[in-house]
Design goal:
Blueprint: H1 2-15, H2 17-28, H3 41-57, H4 65-79, H5 81-92, H6 105-124, H7 128-136
Helix pairs in contact: 1-2, 1-3, 2-3, 3-6, 4-5, 4-6
């Protein structure tokens, strides 16, 4: 069920990334109304959604390059979120110096890292159908 929910989220993020970015801005910025996105920011969000769908919808289990990259990003976010947040802001916003982050940005980034690790873990256990068959037999 979690796999299907995360695939649905990934499809939503591919189709309509702006609400996802808006939510992240409300969570992480004191002044989200001042944020000026770079043109490629929407494509970055779409790429994240596509990566979720790709690693979760594959029928084969096992680690792929995409899965490993997602897991590495998750580990980095969980262990050292601040440098990742800073690099992400530089890539996403034109006016990083004008933005004020909220105090819980690092914990929120750690949660995002945990989400990435969850997606990576779910992708290694195969599809929902194969798991259900294995438990029935």
């Amino acid at each position: 069920m979690l796999r299907k929910l995360l695939i649905a989220f990934g499809i939503f993020e591919i189709a309509n990334p702006q609400p996802v970015i808006d939510a992240c801005e409300r969570i992480g910025l004191e002044n989200p109304e001042d944020a000026r996105l770079r043109p490629r920011a929407l494509w970055g969000a779409r790429l994240e959604g596509a990566l979720f769908v790709w690693v979760l919808a594959r029928r084969e289990s096992g680690a792929t390059i995409a899965n490993r990259l997602l897991a590495l990003a998750g580990i980095a976010l969980v262990l050292v979120p601040q440098p990742i947040v800073e690099v992400s802001q530089q890539l996403v916003y034109e006016n990083v110096d004008e933005l004020e982050t909220k105090p819980w940005v690092d914990p929120a980034a750690r949660l995002l890292g945990a989400l990435y690790l969850t997606v990576a873990a779910l992708s290694t256990i195969g599809s929902d159908e194969s798991n259900e068959d294995a438990t029935v037999n």
